[in-house]
Amino acid sequence: xxxxxxxxxxxxxxxxxxxxxxxxxxxxxxxxxxxxxxxxxxxxxxxxxxxxxxxxxxxxxxxxxxxxxxxxxxxxxxxxxxxxxxxxxxxxxxxxxxxxxxxxxxxxxxxxxxxxxxxxxxxxxxxxxxxxxxxxxxxxxxxxxxxxxxxxxxxxxxxxxxxxxxxxxxxxxxxxxxxxxxxxxxxxxxxxxxxxxxxxxxxxxxxxxxxxxxxxxxxxxxxxxxxxxxxxxxxxxxxxxxxxxxxxxxxxxxxxxxxxxxxxxxxxxxxxxxxxxxxxxxxxxxxxxxxxxxxxxxxxxxxxxxxxxxxxxxxxxxxxxxxxxxxxxxxxxxxxxxxxxxxxxxxxxxxxxxxxxxxxxxxxxxxxxxxxxxxxx
Length: 377
Ligand code: CMC
Fold this sequence. Notes:
- By secondary structure, the protein is an all-alpha fold.
- The chain has 2 domains: 31-223 and 333-356, Citrate Synthase, domain 1 (Orthogonal Bundle); 231-328, CATH 1.10.230.10.
- It is built from 16 helices and 3 strands.
- It has helices spanning 37-43, 46-55, 61-73, 79-87, 94-108, 123-148, 162-171, 177-190, 197-207, 212-224, 231-242, 248-257, 277-291, 294-311, 318-328, 335-356, and strands at residues 21-24, 29-32, 35-36.
- It has a 3-stranded antiparallel sheet.
- α11 crosses α15.
- Carboxymethyl coenzyme *A (CMC) binds next to loops.
- Carboxymethyl coenzyme *A is lined by residues 196, 227-229, 231, 261-268, 313, 316-318.
């Protein structure tokens, strides 16, 4: 091969088509199945957006009720999954816990593994598997946080919808509607973002005709990294380091002199600002008011104003969601698992899309190692 056109990190490479979401960095917009994500976050429960991503249309009232009924059936933490989580060392990262739990869910699903020749599943089986994962992940995330705090498991409540029940299982108290609304918005904003690293990982695994659970487990591994989903957790570490708004300038002087990456800023696709940030920032504002924590907003605003002024690099979704999750009461280690609980909807929609018109994903590489040589005999 002579002079191949290598795009490191596949930057700028269009790999395939998708009908699930459209990111337009020029107009700073993100559409899920044609709907602006801001409109969905302002008007829909997360369950309806999950339905939209999987099926292409928002649900009717009956369809939403049916999805909610199925979701409730799969909410409780299965005994074998709880046992597996309990085997994960308490000082392991919760993403390792979630990855293990998701893998066990697959192994325990009678339709989910078995012969490698039929593991990829029918479209109906894959939709069922998607709903099962979507429904089961909140209890896994919630139990993870509780066991790290030495607290007992909290059983799900059938009278609460997805977001309120998620908060109930995590904190064991009836959540305030302001908090439920902010959390619901965050779930919708994190749900889908075209061919990001974890979604692409899921599509690569699906392209070998492997099963949906294996693709999700691989995606969880890709999401764990701080250049992707791990950034929301990293934002809180930065906030903790800085302490208060008055320290921002001095902290930034040092961080930039050390050429540190400032987590929660920058994006591979959006170069003029992340389309999801204003909606999540509004949710953060409502939480700051609800919990009466103006100093959080002061630090948030000072750091983003100063960093944008100095570097022209804008906040991404992880920047407002990190402090929002912190205000709600989630441990910093739980932030990326929350991203999993949301993005599993987008991943599974992409897995089904990939399976429906599959081509094995197998790119080429240009060899730059030692020239051919031989064993001396
Ligand atoms: N802090 C400091 N400098 C930055 C940052 C940042 N957050 N982001 C980009 N830059 C600089 C980078 O150092 C480079 O400078 P130079 O050209 O002088 O070497 C230039 O901007 C281009 O950066 P890049 O990393 O080559 O660009 P990319 O498109 O590969 O990076 C990114 C995108 C998200 C990996 C990067 O912006 C980053 O590392 N951000 C921090 C981590 C983060 O917040 N990730 C969450 C991404 S959004 C949610 C998600 O998808 O999971």
